[in-house]
């Protein structure tokens, strides 16, 4: 009887360990943030921007449904990927977010840091239209929904440091936003990063 009880307890311990391992697997899926231009999430982690809430601890976790622009996060919640815990990213803060200076038509290396690379469909970059409403949370109607840069991966796994040479769109002056979308190949999700820029 004692031997059976020991075996039973051992079985429970092994089962608990297996459960812990299996429930931690999704954490290995892709995570990342943009470093060029620096995203709002990264500015929060750096401490450049204060009162950011939870995003300061996990700028790599802005993950929502893929399929943008036909699907994906709701309008007004694009920068947070629709995650309530990251709602601070959707607040325009009266234009107080740091903005990187760009020149229309210049060559630029758009960069990501991936804390957990994963099989990737593509990376796409969108920019706001001239005359967009800078005081309202970002919506599809504010964006040119034709990406100005698309990097197709066809399921390949990128490196941790990703650089995509491209050209900054023309026809812009003043303050704008770039929305970068990293679509994961074999999950239902994508990662969304908003960066503030100035022309």
From TrEMBL:
Cross-referenced Gene3D superfamilies: chitin-binding protein cbp21
Transmembrane segments: none
Source taxon at top rank: Bacteria
Domain Chitin-binding type-4: start-end pairs: 31-197
Region forming the signal peptide: 1-28
Main subcellular localisation: secreted
Keywords linked to the UniProt accession: Secreted, Signal
The keyword Magnesium belongs to this UniProt entry's keyword annotation: no
Pfam families in alphabetical order: LPMO_10
Compartment(s) of residence: Secreted
One Gene Ontology CC term in the entry: extracellular region
PANTHER family: CHITIN-BINDING TYPE-4 DOMAIN-CONTAINING PROTEIN, GLCNAC-BINDING PROTEIN A
Protein name: Chitin-binding protein
Organism: Kribbella turkmenica
């Amino acid at each position: 009887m004692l031997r059976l009880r020991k075996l039973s307890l051992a079985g429970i311990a092994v089962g608990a360990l297996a459960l812990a391992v299996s429930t931690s697997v999704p954490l290995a899926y892709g995570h990342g943030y943009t470093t060029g231009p620096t995203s709002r999430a990264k500015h929060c982690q750096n401490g450049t921007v204060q009162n950011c809430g939870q995003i300061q601890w996990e700028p790599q976790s802005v993950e929502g449904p893929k399929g943008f622009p036909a699907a994906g996060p709701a309008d007004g919640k694009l920068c947070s990927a629709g995650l309530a815990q990251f709602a601070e990213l959707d607040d325009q803060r009266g234009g107080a977010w740091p903005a990187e200076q760009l020149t229309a038509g210049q060559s630029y290396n758009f960069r990501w840091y991936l804390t957990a690379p994963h099989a990737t469909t593509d990376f796409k970059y969108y920019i706001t239209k001239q005359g967009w409403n800078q005081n309202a949370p970002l919506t599809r109607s504010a964006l040119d929904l034709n990406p100005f840069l698309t990097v197709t991966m066809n399921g390949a796994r990128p490196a941790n440091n990703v650089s995509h040479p491209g050209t900054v769109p023309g026809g812009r002056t003043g303050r704008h936003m770039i929305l970068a979308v990293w679509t994961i190949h074999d999950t239902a999700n994508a990662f969304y990063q908003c960066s503030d820029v100035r022309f």
